[in-house]
Amino acid sequence: MNLAIWLQRAAVRHAQRPALLHGNESCGDYTHFYAQARALAAALLERGIQPDDRIGIFARNHPNVLVAYYAVWLIGAVIVPINNKLHRKEAAWILENSGACLVLASTARGADLAEACPLPWLDLEGEAFAKLCQPGPTCDPIARSKDDLAWLFYTSGTTGRPKGVRITHGMIAATSLAYLADVDTVLPDDAALYAAPMSHGAGLYAPVHVLMGAAHMVPLSGGFDADEVLALSAEQKSTSMFMAPTMVRRLLDRARATGQRGTGIRTIIYGGGPMYVSDIVEAVDWFGPRFVQIYGQGECPMAISSLTREQVADRAHPDWEARLGSVGQAQSVVEIRIDDGTGQPAPHGATGEILVRGAPVMPGYWQNAAATREALREGWLHTGDLGRIDAEGFLTLLDRSKDVIISGGSNIYSREVEEVLLQHPDVHEVSVIGRADPEWGEVVVAVITPRDGAKPSSQELDAHCLSEMARFKRPKHYCVCDDLPKNNYGKILKTDLRTRLDSLPPLD
Fold it and tell me: Where are the alpha helices (DSSP H) in 408-470?
């Protein structure tokens, strides 16, 4: 089924409900949203765009991004959303690799991209684009099957070139229905607030909000600004949003500084990186039970596991802290297992690679048969993440397999060390990585961002670690970094930290 059918139905069922908002300003109801998408679809057909053609979208968050998504899907073509923060050469490589024939871009990004890419581009925020969306020739949804490509998602890949994940109409439908079953309800007066990049998880949640007739609110900044999120939510009165854990941390810090309790925020879904127990405890204590955690990958978008609002807020269960350190239980549309290293399921509590299978799992990478064979084996997606599952099905992530620190023959999982360090009152953020060592193979190094005004010493942190975990796991060195490097999705870039490690000042 073509995902654009959900918009077609919403234009009937929710015709006069607000659909697109730029800040608090309405850009039209569902009737208007669908009419814009149909007009743009007809214009794309006039340009010779065919089913299965790829259309690049290189833009900051904007309501017209959603119009573009649905126009492309209407004609059976494929969107290739690109991280707005990428360098033009990186974006040009993705466009070339995907075989895109057209780019829809923000004003600044399109002009920048033109220097590195010969493809024609349309300004998503310009008058010419607006004219293409005005009443005229229209297009109804072209038939698509669940296996037809809808979205070509390029991984953020910290090593080498990113891989293009083939996301189908059926995968997005499964993720959307799992949202309603395992993540959150969508209420009639809700607005999905797009503070996180629409090229990533936030955009993947747009279809379920279209299905349910919710509004789509895009901040005027085109991205994440804590003050803007708090103000828009207070005025809208019922917002739901996806955030990376680092965004939650920044929102919490700003709300505390200004005395705001998140009025109007109904749900914050967090994922895309490790949420440390100390951070989510603080967030729930301040904002209340508004948080849901999900775990997914581009290869199984947003739909591997979830930790419900009730589970995140629960402090009565005897294992609440361990559960809060997990990423929840399998979502309805998948199976999860831990591989014991020989291709067999590991027992409860044992550590191994996380495998997943089900309707949201990709059919493979774009034009990369070798990587597809490596990732998809014997019917399972091999995630590259290490974790363990307890007897009740709660999945705890430990590390990316490539990030495990092997020191003196012992495996050390950076997240376990990070969780301990974040319990120290002077530590604001931390990333733990390995450094090559001739004696031990690798030693543990903690890169610390202190809280404002705090000056922790390495002796204090060492004593804290020794009181909480085995001696062999504690960092051998501590460094200071004013701001840990992150990508546009809020993930800490450990590869960047490793290259910068020798230039970072040691903690006294």
Answer: 414-421, 458-468
> How far from 223 is each of 21, 107, 230, 295, CA to CA, in Å?
14, 15, 13, 22
The confidence score (pLDDT) of residue 489 equals 62
4-389 to CATH, choices 3.30.70.2190, 3.40.50.12780, 3.90.650.10, 2.60.40.10: 3.40.50.12780
Instruction: Classify domain 404-503 at the CATH class level.
Output: alpha beta
- The answer to whether the beta carbons of residues 122 and 103 sit under 8 Å apart is yes
pLDDT at 155: 85
Greatest mean pLDDT among 110-124, 205-219, 453-467 lies in: 205-219
**Residue whose C-alpha is closest to residue 148's, from 1, 37, 7, 6:** 1
- List C-alpha distances in Å: 303 to 329, 467, 475: 11, 37, 34
Rounded-to-integer distance, Cα 437 and Cα 444, Å: 10
Helix (H, G, I), strand (E, B) or coil at 63: helix
What confidence tens digit (pLDDT) does each residue in 459-508 have? 999 999 988 877 888 999 999 998 898 876 677 888 788 888 889 999 87
